[in-house]
Amino acid sequence: MAACARQGKRAKVILSNVTNVYSNLALEHWILNNWKFSKFDCLLVYRNEPCVVVGRFQNTWREVNVSRAKRQGVSIARRVSGGGTVYHDLGNVNFSFFTDKPSHCPAKNLHFLSMTLNDRYQLTVDPNKRHDLFIGDKKISGSASRIIRTGSFHHCTLLVNSDLVKLSGLLHGDKTLVGAATASVPSPTTSIFSVTSRDVTSQKRDVITPSNIIDLVAESYLSLYRQNTEVAVDLWSEECNQNSENNVILVDKVTDEILDPHHESYEWIFGRSPKFSREFEVKGKVFTVFVEKGLIREVDNSENCDLVGQRKFPVLAEMGRKRKKTNIIDATEIKKVSKTFARGEGPDLKSIQDKKLKRELIVKEKLNAQAIRSAAFNQLLLPEERGCLEADEGERTLKFKQTDIVKHVDVGSARKHFSLNLPHHGPYRCAYSRNGRKLLIGGAKGHVATFDWQTGQLGCEFHAKETIRDVVWLHNRDYIAVAQKKYAYIYDGQGTELHRLKNHINPVHLDYLPYHWLLVSTGATGFLKYHDVSIGKLVVELKTRLGQPHSMTHNPWNAVVHLGHSNGTVTMWSPSMKEPLVKMLCHHGPVTALAVDPTGRHMVTCGLDKQMKVWDVRTYKESLAYYSHRPGSNLAISQTGLLAAAFGGQVQVWKDAFKTKQKAPYMSHLVEGAVIEGLDFANFEDVLGLGHSKGFTSLLIPGAGEANYDALELNPFESKRQKQESEVKMLLNKIQPELITLDQGHIHQMKEEVEEKPLDSLEHKELILKFKMKGKNSAKRRFHRREKHIHDEKRQKVRAALEKAKKEKEGIPEEPRTILDRFKYKEA
Fold first, then answer.
1. Strand ranges of the sheet holding 687-692, from the earlier edge strand across to the other edge
2. Mean predicted confidence (pLDDT) in 730-740
3. How far, in Å, are 26, 138, 191, 242, 655 from residue 141 at the CA level?
4. Helix 210-224 to helix 106-121 angle, to the nearest 10 degrees?
5. Which of 104, 299, 356, 544 has the fewest Cβ atoms within 10 Å of its own Cβ atom?
C-alpha cells in the first residue's frame, strides 16, 4: 500500500448505508465495471441484513439449508466472484478493495486489516495462505476476488458481532448431491466481540462495534495514502464522480438503473448451480434425478416423467431428507389426491360381451388410471399453493380495499399494486404476455407502450398518431399487433413498424391463437379474418352477416372464436367453415362482453339488458345468471377460475361463479371518475390489470394466478436462449387451421362410414337389366384406352417443359421456395 502512495495514487472510501444484499452486490458490480482505477484506489464498506451469499461456481442447495433460510426470512444471493459461502448480518462488516489489475494483491489488503485491528484492540489476527483471517484456530473473515480487463476487487467479511448460532444452522446444505460445483471449506468460526469479551474490560468491549470498526478502517485506509477524511458527499450528487477530489462518499440508496432484477431471480441464484444429480427412494425403488440450470432434465428408473423440465427439485430434496423415516410419498396420500382427478366410475367390463370392445376399454382404463396417478403424484410435489382472502367472522372479503391488502403483504407483492396516470391518451386497452411478465397498453388516442411491469423496465413506447381500438401480443414478447383506425399493424419490441395488414380494414377487435399462429380480427364491415403470422398470409375471411360484432374472444381449449352481436346472439366460428358452428341467443340486446374459462367448459356473457350469464358450452344451456345495476363492459377469467367483470368505473371479482350462484362478489374496486375499457389477468401472478380513461391500474387479487408453472410450456423467467428455443418448438408444433373444431377429441377418430343397406330393401326396387354393346370391353379396346392415357401423360409433361422454357427465355423468375413453405395453408 505504501508503494501505491509513492506512485501518486489517491484513495476513496465509499460508505454504504444500504442494508439490502442485492443492492450492495449490484453497487459493487457497477463500480467495478464503470470506474477506472489507474489514478486512485477505492474501498467500499457495507453491511447487510441477514442473508447467505454463495460463490459464483457453487451449488446453492449443497451449501445452504434452503428450507431453514425460507422459514427464518433469510435472503439467499449469488455473487459474481468465486470462493465459498458466507453468512451476512448487521454484526458483520464487508470490505471491498478496488484497484487496477496490476496492483491487485489480496495479501496486502488482509495484512492492512490485521495490522489495523491488532494495533487498536491488541488482538492476534493473522492471515493464512487461503486469504482468510484467523484469531488462533478460529476464522473471523473469508474473502474472494474478481478480476476483469479494466480493474479488480478483493472483498472480505469481518465477523464483529454476528449471530454464530444462525450462521452454523444455515450453512449446512444437502451434501448428498453429486456434481462438479466448488465446495466450501468448513472452518470453526468466531467473532471479534466473542474473543475480546474474555480478554478486555467492559469499557473496551463497548468500543468494539461494527460502526466503530468501519470508522477505524476508513481512517487507516486514507492515512496510508496520506489523505485525511473530508466532508462526505453523496455518490449520486453532481459534485461527485470518479475524478472528483472527494475522499469519502456516502450511499443512501441504489438507483433502479444499477439494480439488475436478474440477480434476484431463480435462474441466477439457483439456476447457475452446476449440473448435479441426486438419488431418491420411493416405495423401495431408487431413482436418480438429474438437474441442470435449476430444472429437472432427466429421471432414471421412474415412470413419473412429468417431472422433466420443471422446478420441483427443491421439494424433492426437502422430502428426501426424511427418507430414512418414511417414503417420500405414501400410497394412501396418492389415493386421496387421485379422487380429485377421477372422472367418475369406469364401465362394467364384466357385462360387455363384445371381445374387441372390451379389449379397447381395458386399454383406455389403464391409460386413464396411469394419467390420474401421475397427476396425483405431481400434485403432491407442487412447491407452491395458491392462497386467497379469508375474512374473520362477521366480515366479508368484499369490504377489503387495496390499501388494506398492500399493508399486510410482503414488499415484493406490495410493489405489484401501482397506477399509471395517463389522462390525456385514454381510455386504454391492456394485455399481459402469455408468461405474465410483460404488459402492453394502448390508448385510444394513439399511445402504445410495452414494459416489464414487475421491474418497470420499458420495452418500447411510441405514438401511432391515429385512433387505436385494440392491442394484442403475438407469439412472444418481441411482437405486438395493434388495431388502428384504417388497418391492423404489427410492431417489434423496439416499436418499429414491420407490417401493415391491408386486408384487415377498420379493425375493432383483435385476438391471437398461439398454437395455430393465427391473428384474428373483426371490424366494422362484419368480416371475421384469420391471418397466419408465421408465413404472412391471409388464411380466410368469413362474412358474419350480422354487422359489426360488439365483442370477441376465443375458447382456449379448442381455439373456436366467439363473437357477440348486436341482436343478442353469440356465434362460434372455425376457419374451415363458412357458416357459424353454433349460433346462440344469449341476451335481449347487444352482447357487450365475452369470456371463456381456461377449461373451455363455461362461457360468460354480458349484455345491455344488465345481465351477466354463465353458459355451459358442452350443452349450450344457461347455467347461472347474475343481475347488475348497469351493463357490463368487459370480462376476464383468471387461470384459477376467478371471474372479473367491469361495470363502468367499477370492477367486481367473483369466486366460484361457475359452480353455484354467489350472493356477493369476492372483491370489488372502484376507479373514481373513469370508465374501464381493458381488463386482463396476469398469468402466474395474483394481479388484475385495468385499462381505463385515466390510465392503467394494477390490482392485487389473492388466488388469481396459478402457483406452479410448466417451464416447457410457459416460463415467466425464461432467458433469451430459452425464448428462441421455445419459438422454434412452437413453429414446429404449429397446428393447421383445418383442425379447429368444437370437439378436439374426434380428430383422431374420424373414419369413413359405410352405409349398410338391409337385404329386404332390394325386394321393393325394380330390377333394371342393362344390355351392353358387343365388343365394348374387348381386349383391343382395352389396349387402345390404356395407350390413350399414356399419351395424355406424355402430352402434359411436354406442355409443362415448353412453358418452363418460355418463362426462362422471357426472363420470368421462378417463385422461390423457403423452409417455411411446409407451414403454408393448403388451398382446397
1. 418-421, 695-700, 687-692, 676-681
2. 92
3. 22, 10, 9, 29, 54
4. 120
5. 356
